[in-house]
Amino acid sequence: MDSKEFTPDMPGTLIPTLTGKPDTAHAFVPAPLPPKWEWPSRLWPLLLEARTAIASLDGTGKHLPAPEILLRPLQNREAQLSSKLEGTITDPQDQALFQANPRYPVSDQDSVNALREVFNYGRALRTSMDSETRLPLSLRLIKELHAILMDGVRGQNQTPGEFRSTQNQIGRPARFVPPPPAQMTEALYAFEKYLYAGGDFDPLVRAFLAHYQFETIHPFGDGNGRVGRLLLSLTIAEWCKLSGQWLYMSAYFEKNKNEYMDLMKSVSTHANWEGWIEFCLQGVVDQAIDAQKRCDKLLSLHKDFHNRLKKGTLRIAKILEGLFESPVVSVLHIKNKFGVSHATAKSDLKKLEAMGILSELLGKGNITYYCPEIYRVTYEDLP
After folding, report:
1. CA distance 360 to 199
2. Predicted confidence (pLDDT) per residue in 160-199, tens digit
3. How far apart are CA 50 and CA 156, in angstroms?
4. Which of 67, 95, 206, 376 could anchor a disulfide with 61, C-beta 3.0 to 4.6 Å?
């Protein structure tokens, strides 16, 4: 990290480190939130557009008897894309099969690592949504989410669920150097206070201020990006009083990865809060509109599929509902889930295939089917 990039306007301080390496000679310690920044009037229209977009999205699922039919596909997409930002790429069909039969990798080289990482992200998402058991926004919750994310995967030696005790860096050579452990701890306590506070900026803006702060502190040895994006969806939902975590930003961040990283760093070097918040609010508009399209298509599919089913058994109706949770299903999975014979499970899936709802997947083993229409709406880019 080049200390000369940091201007006198930087919202924090540079301190020397003890690494002995030129690229990590200094670390940046962010000042506590809220920033000393005056909201620019030119961003009011964009903020209004963003708040209107997420309110519309929230309204789509708010009154559904089973909002999971929309939330789970959005969560599955988020798990894939958030992990992709960290370089973990898996096939959604393989991921869905893994979700039905999860297991731990046997070595760091085991390909199951990637599948487990995405699976863990989905688990952490659902944990953060559970209003009955979820902890309040706090450092304890952040550590719990990290422990779930790192459960049994590469990097688990980075003390899952515990903040780091050594200096870390972003990039090699270092593009950015977060606070050393002692200063990191102080910054985290100040960050937790900000999570409890309120009233400085619009709640949506506050969520992105907090996202910057968390990623800048970078408190874990591994998994900071994923935890940060989990926390972002959670703060948006809670602070904007949404009925659920309808908005996920990973697709936008992944599509604009370089700008995302550059703007975040420009906050540290030049206090470029305006550029960072404008970028994020535009992302909210884009992702809310995209999620709205997906929700509308999923609702239409849900109605259409049940019209096709008509006189099916209760078990087949449950299998159909399960496709919105995971659009890939195997005969073995149905056999185990419902306690039926292999022949009965296969017959049920064949009936859904005859209705045009399922198609057989070749090369996946164990007679596997998928729902092409739900799969496309969930994972592919929409026009």
Report:
1. 54
2. 899 999 999 998 898 999 999 999 999 999 999 999 987 7
3. 37
4. 67
Strand partners, 13: 29
Q: CA angle, 52 as apex, 48 and 54 as ends, to 5°?
A: 120
The answer to whether 129 touches 244, Cβ cutoff 8 Å, is: yes
Residue pLDDT, tens place only, 119-165: 888 888 887 666 566 788 999 999 999 999 988 887 655 688 999 99
Residue located via tokens 């200094």: 26
Compute the distance between CA of residue 323 and CA of residue 340 in angstroms, rounded to an integer: 18
The DSSP output letter for 32 is: P
The sign of the CA dihedral 139, 144, 149, 151 is positive
Global pTM?
Answer: 0.91
Question: What span, in angstroms and rounded, lies between the C-alpha atoms of 342 and 198?
Answer: 56
